[in-house]
Amino acid sequence: MKKSTDNPWQMIGLIGTLGMEVVLMTLGGGWLGRMLDTRWHTQPVLLITGVMLGLVLGIASAFYTIKALLRE
């Protein structure tokens, strides 16, 4: 059976997906942190925490996506 990594367009799509996972998780963490900062008047503590947490979760999500692809 032909491996799914042989198609260059599929690899370009994978790279785009991995980038979007990291970016969207980071932006989501920043957005949530800013909203909580506004509500609890803790600027910029929760914003920074949200961005860092989103970045870590985005990288972890990308890692598991690559791991699942390599398992196929």
Describe the protein in words.
Helix 1 runs antiparallel to helix 2. The model has no long low-confidence stretch (mean pLDDT 92). 83% of the residues lie in helices and 0% in strands. With 72 residues, it is mostly helical. The chain has 2 helices and no strands. It has one domain. InterPro entries: ATPase_put (IPR032820). Keywords: Membrane, Transmembrane, Transmembrane helix.
Q: Which descriptors would you attach to this protein?
A:
72 residues, mainly alpha, 2 helices, elongated, ATPase_put, transmembrane helix, membrane, transmembrane
Shape: elongated
Number of helical regions: 2
- Overall tally of domains: 1
Number of strands: 0
Helix percentage range: over 70%
Biggest sheet descriptor:
none
Alpha carbon gap, first and last residue: 11 Å
- How large, in whole angstroms, is the Cα Rg? 16 Å
User: Strand content of the residues, in percent?
Assistant: under 5%
What integer is the average pLDDT?
92
Backbone structural class: mainly alpha
Order of helices and strands: HH
Low-confidence stretches: none
Mind sketching the topology for me?
Blueprint: H1 8-40, H2 45-71
Task: Characterize this entry briefly.
The chain is about 85% helix and about 0% strand.
